[in-house]
Amino acid sequence: MQTWVDFAAIKQSVPLASLLRQCQVKLRCSGRDQYRGCCPIHGGEGREAFHANLSRNVFHCFACGAAGTVLDFVAAMEQCSLREAAMKLACFIALAPAPAGPKQLVTRKSNSSAPLGFTLRGVDTAHPYLAARGIRTPTALQFGVGFYRGSGIFAGRLVIPIHNERGELAAYCGRAVDGTQPRYRFPAGFAKSEFVFNLHRAAAAGQPTVVVVEGFFDCLKVYQAGVTAVVALMGAELYEAQKRALLRQFQNIILMLDGDTAGRRATAAITAQLRPYTTVRVIHLADGVQPDQLTTEAAREILQAGSRHPGTIC
Ligand SMILES: [Zn+2]
What we know:
The protein contains eleven helices and 16 strands. By secondary structure, it is α+β, with helices and mostly antiparallel strands. The chain has a five-stranded antiparallel beta sheet, covered by helices on one side. A five-stranded antiparallel beta sheet has the order 8-9-10-11-12. It has a four-stranded parallel beta sheet with strand order 14-13-15-16, with helices on both faces. Strand 4 (50-53) and strand 5 form a beta hairpin. It binds zinc ion. Zinc ion (ZN) is lined by residues 39, 41-42, 49-50, 61, 63-64, 66.
């Protein structure tokens, strides 16, 4: 069935700025509401080639010639039609597409502070890199993690969707699979200190206890070991917003950070941060061991032992 999408409403409702932020485009202010930088569409040749006018909500790249509105931007980034781009953005801003017929706009109020303008298409959840890291396809599907072949800043990277506490897609992280730096690429302006990876799914598990790990792959591995209430801090620090979110959702915390100097130091610091408010148990991994390196069976054994005997395990 043909659906009606109001292109004009979408062009107005979705700020180009938020799409650019999501794509980690670094722009330099060159005048009132005028910005310049590398072009995310053709890959960046010409450090000043890409011009954006945020008050008019339009862009133009003088190197590759791409130009237009948020619709053109998404169509170019995702290599899809304008109509598909409009559908993606419409879903996102909840401008519900109405059936063809009445030519009036069906609007639920748009949310300009909405976290993300589109979802990446063509994410390969069966990419060999995942298997090499011991991640099974059903797990990759569940988390939406996979290899991205499209264009833009995540091209050729493993993309990992990050959601907010309400379960709305907030950003992607692009993980290099070939040693390229940076190993983890976050969109410009994305504050990972405000997010706890997998928090919305872990909270939905409805259990009082959560396992807290450092990285995305640690989280995926612990999940595969049968623990659905697992979250990652995306680093070896616990920020205030993360602490508050964890305390809102869980009564007990099991810390399982990396078995290295940074991990042990972080374990001590985070335990001290949380102890006044909640029960904290610690699973110490052996020297040099990280949760993501454990086989599913080993992770399961360690976690089962860890929940029986709080304290030093392994
Ligand atoms: Zn360009």
